[in-house]
Amino acid sequence: MTAFLRLRTLLLAVLAAFAFVRPAAAVDYTDIWWNPGESGWGVNFIQATDFIFATFFIYGENQQPTWVTAQLTRGSSNVWTGPLYYTTGSFYGAAWNPNQQTTAQVGTATFVPTDSATGQLTYVVGTVTVVKTITRQTLKPFFAGGQYAGAVQLVYSGCANNGTSTYWTQLTVTQRPNGSMRFAWLAYDANGNPFTFAMDGASAQQGVLYRLPNATYTFDGNTLSADMSQIRVTTQGIEGTWFSNFGQGCTESGYFSLLWVQP
Predict the structure, then answer these.
(1) What pLDDT, in 10s, does the model give residues 64-93?
(2) Which of 45, 101, 128, 169 is 20 to 30 A from 111 (CA-CA)?
(3) What distance lies between CA 3 and its chain's CA centroid?
């Protein structure tokens, strides 16, 4: 273990593009969110840095669709809050008439994430307060298998050699029919010497994200567990993060962003 940690802390950044690896606090909440016990109700989040535009599909006292939106800004402790608006407009079958458009603030909304895929949403419409536990809504599986090339960043805390290492890596992702996934990494040390490590386990899809909550993490003759999360397949490649406890207070947080090489 000590030799492995020493090797990792000596890794050299070899690509200027590594600066674009996601920092620890960067969670993108853009997705469709819902409460699985209330099919037909939901909210869409579109995030731009520290701002979320939310559109709700909810119903009024007459059980007819009601159009409300919210503009949420991230505050302290990652709490998102802002005004809630009720809007009206022209009949969809007619030409748009700007004079028929109205916007009025009718309350507020607050989103408190529990993690990257769940949270609590509170919204006030007039005198009515609604509190819901929400999660990302999964539409269909995403294909993640293939070969990638890019960067991995490791952050150590509570270890004999704390710090951050960034290095070039090649990644092969195997996505099995039973839902399990394997991430096999080929990386290079400061002298250009290759070394490998891998994570393997059952995957869970959460909206547009995958997670391996208890992956088997093998490296340098050691076997530990890792929680892989925020795994997102993009049009350009794949990105995500993991966390592993090495024991005695020593932890590793990993962040990766890689481009498709071969699907």
Answers:
(1) 999 999 999 999 999 999 999 999 999 999
(2) 101
(3) 32
In this predicted model, what pLDDT tens digit does every residue of 5-25 receive, in sequence order? 433 433 333 333 333 444 444
Contact indicator for 202, 212 with CB cutoff of 8 Å: yes
Domains annotated on the chain, with CATH: 2-26+140-262 (2.40.128.120), 31-136 (no CATH)
Q: Give, for 4, the enclosing helix (H) or strand (E).
A: helix 2-9
With helix as H, strand as E and coil as C, how does the chain read? CHHHHHHHHCCCCCCHHHHHCCCCCCCCCCEEEECCCCCCCEEEEEEECCEEEEEEEEECCCCCEEEEEEEEEECHHHCEEEEEEEEECCCCCCCCCHHHCEEEEEEEEEEEECCCCEEEEEEEECCEEEEEEEEECCCCCCCCCEEEEEEEEEEEECCCCCEEEEEEEEEEEEECCCCEEEEEEEEECCCCCEEEEEEEEECEEECCEEEEEEEEEEECCEEEEEEEEEEEECCCEEEEEEEEEEECCEEEEEEEEEEEEEC
